[in-house]
Amino acid sequence: MDEIKSEIHNILKGAILAAIEAGELPISDVPEIPFSPTKTPEHGDIATPIALGLAKSAKMAPRAIAEIIRKHVDTNKHPRIRDLEIAGPGFINVYLSNEWLYGTLRSIVEAKDAYGSSKIGTGKRVQIEFVSANPTGPLNIVSGRAAAVGDTLVNLLNAVGYEAIREYYVNDAGGQVERLGESIEVRYRQALGEKNLEIPEGGYPGEYLRDFAKMIVAKEGDAYLKLSQEERVTLFRDKGVAHLLGQQKASLERFGVDFDVWTSEKAIRDSGKPDQIIDMFREKDYLYEAEGATWFRMTDFGDDKDCVVIRTNGEYTYFVPDAAYHHDKFDRGFDKVIDLLGPDHQGHVTRLKNFVKALGLPDDWLEVDIIQQVNLIDSDGTRRDMSKRQGQFLTLDSLIDELADAVGERFAVDVARYFFLMRANNTHLDFNLELAVTQANENPVFYIQYAHARCYSIFQQGKDQRIELKPIDEVSLELLTEPSEHELIRKLADFPAIVLSSAEDREAHRIPHYLHELAGMFHPYYNQHRVLDTSNMGRTYARLILIQSVQTVLANGLRLLGISAPESM
């Protein structure tokens, strides 16, 4: 469709230039010609309001301008255009010949799994960092949304030619993992029978640490009591991080997300790169000393206040390893880096970009997108705050378990991923677990998957009747004359543009919306029209090509979402 719009653009531009040369349009320049979809096929295939845009400069009525443009388009010389019609105050509706529809089917049959892909991003390397949850507890449903979105965006970028990778930044250093070690140390002593112990302030009271401490006791007994408390905290910190990170990896694998790179914050710190960043900032005079701390001149970059990078105790704030990590990304040769962060990092975005700018990296090299909050809704309709520190959260595994009880393990991940992907990243998602489980069998993802399974069943029925798919060059596609068939093909033609815009705009939710609309066109067609008709084999072969194309696009779209395309339901 983009190719067709480009061709129509050139035809209309030529008509406008001809009208200017003939003295019929008193304008000097031809602006970009915009296009918009039509509401129904009766109003054409595409439309343009260019006549309305030219009205002011030409000092003419839009409809009169549209008539002049139409006069200078010879449809006999342009076989793609069947007709031009002037509508309303001056819209030009373009009716395309049916040949482009059949050409769409040829493109799908030829490209197969590659239909929808392009080479726009060829030669460019992109890194997307997402989830990156602190290794202080199991992954919750907020991380589940980030995992679904990030994984799909990588698929989309790779589909349009980029070399995109998935990366997880393990925050295994700093205060939060120290609090984890302290919390496990308390749970360990409690598991051994010690009373009157409290989780330290800022620690993690969740039951999952009680269970972990019991595992340690079951395996090692009271062997660690002979260590000093400081030694125990350090030991349990490392054991806790390893255990919880292992759980997170297992949860992500179950959810269908396989990260290409796992980067450790501790490794970044130990590499000396944060020290190099501080030296670099000092050389550029971005640092100064005040109140016993070292400050970064954030106000030099338009912020309202400076920020501390080295505390009074000599420890780095998290900004320094963050800056070092991003400089490491640049050193690895990425042309673009995309950070998908949670809403609690909104205030961090500007400062992170300023640090990247201070490092001398290109302004457009770092992109930060916020994945908005997932709110858990209780059965009584109240919103529950989720926090590892409060011990109140729903794990991703628990969600999948509950969905599996309703729809089976086979489809539980599909339902969860679709639920997380069906809304825009910048909108909050209220997750009513009871409602999600109750309505799981009515989930729109099944509507899409059922459409794919129906396509597959048609070919199985054909085999039973000894009706095989013919090579497309041997099929008379012009026998596809039903309006619903043309509507389906138009929708199929939109798929590559949807994939490209979803990738470039980082809007993963457009794919599930598109697939749901396509399924919504296919199901009525399936119910109303007989595909396998031995009394009209020419049309049967043509319709099988159409069904094959619908199945291909549904499968390609579901694959981008990390959702299965079943052959039966």
Structure description:
This protein has 569 residues and is α/β, with parallel strands linked by helices. It folds into four domains: 2-97, Arginyl tRNA synthetase N-terminal domain (Gyrase A, domain 2), CATH 3.30.1360; 126-170 and 258-370, Rossmann fold; 175-254, no CATH class; 443-561, Isoleucyl-tRNA Synthetase, Domain 1 (Orthogonal Bundle), CATH 1.10.730. Helix content is 50%, strand content 12%. It is built from 19 helices and 15 strands. The protein has helices spanning 2-21, 50-58, 62-71, 99-111, 141-159, 175-191, 207-220, 229-254, 265-270, 273-283, 319-331, 348-358, 396-407, 409-421, 433-438, 444-464, 483-504, 510-528, 537-561; strands at residues 36-37, 46-48, 81-87, 91-96, 125-129, 163-170, 261-264, 287-290, 293-296, 307-310, 336-341, 366-370, 374-377, 383-384, 429-432. The strands form four sheets. The chain has a five-stranded parallel β-sheet, with helices on both faces. The chain has a four-stranded antiparallel β-sheet with strand order 1-2-4-3, covered by helices on one side. Strand 1 and strand 2 (46-48) form a beta hairpin. Helix 6 crosses helix 7, helix 16 (444-464) packs antiparallel against helix 19 (537-561) and helix 17 (483-504) packs antiparallel against helix 18 (510-528). The radius of gyration is 30 Å and the shape is globular. It starts with a helix and ends in an 8-residue tail after the last helix. The model has no long low-confidence stretch (mean pLDDT 92).
